Amino acid sequence: MAYAVAPLERLIEQFERLPGIGHKTACRLAFHMLSADAATAADFVSAITEAREKIHECPVCCNLTDGTSCPICSAENRDRSTICVVEDPRDVIALERGRDYTGLYHVLHGTISPMEGKGPESIRIKELLPRVAEEQVQEVIMATNPTVEGDATALYIARLLKPFGVKVTRLAYGIPVGGELEYADEVTLRHSLEGRSEL
């Protein structure tokens, strides 16, 4: 007879539902939570509950926030002439970590993917168009991932923005810093050559 404790099995199953978490890691997390003191476990549950109740999409850029608008849209020192379009709220965090970009964002919450049944209406494209039309936007940076879906989404949005007369650019991609040419694939090498800049 297999050893099983129903509440423990349920906890492991819930951890396994998280992206990137396999059975062994789910077991480690479950046992860690069981060994934690009651206050730590309560804080963990409270943090999940609070995040689920308070976090929503910013009505301006569709990023995540717990206020009326996100801190980036509310900041007076941001460059309002530039909007960087990203697929996911995690992309905003990654770009903000670099501290080089000072403009605004627009979060799509996905990409156009016919194979998954996701068309333009499935992501936050329609929210971007009024922003470009009504605000003093001069450039829209397409920062979707360099995948087939990311490229298709960037091209689709670029076509929609053409009548507005704004500059639409795409993030450069190629050989990563510290990478070696011999390990780069052909597509990456081609993009690196096409996106080369003058020294």
Major sheet, described briefly?
A: 4 strands, parallel
CATH topology of one domain: Dna Topoisomerase Vi A Subunit, Chain: A, domain 2
Text of the CATH class of one domain: Alpha Beta
What is the helical fraction, as a range of percent? 40-55%
Envelope shape = globular
Total of DSSP H or I helical runs spanning 4+ residues: 8
**What is the N-to-C order of secondary-structure elements (H for helix, E for strand)?**
HHHEEHEHEHEHEH
Describe the structure.
The chain is an alpha/beta fold. The chain has a domain of 107 residues: Dna Topoisomerase Vi A Subunit, Chain: A, domain 2, CATH 3.40.1360.10. The protein is 43% helix and 13% strand. The strands form two sheets. A four-stranded parallel sheet has the order 4-3-5-6. Strands 1-2 form a two-stranded antiparallel sheet. α5 links the parallel β3 and β4. The longest helix has 17 residues.
Which tags fit this structure?
199 residues; alpha/beta; Dna Topoisomerase Vi A Subunit, Chain: A, domain 2; four-stranded parallel beta sheet; two-stranded antiparallel sheet; 8 helices; 6 strands; globular
Short structural summary:
By secondary structure, this protein is of the alpha/beta class.
Helix and strand arrangement:
Elements lengths: L5 H11 L6 H13 L2 H17 L1 E2 L6 E2 L5 H4 L4 E8 L2 H10 L4 E5 L20 H7 L4 E4 L5 H14 L5 E4 L15 H9 L5
Parallel strand pairs: 3-4, 3-5, 5-6
Antiparallel strand pairs: 1-2
Helix pairs in contact: 1-2
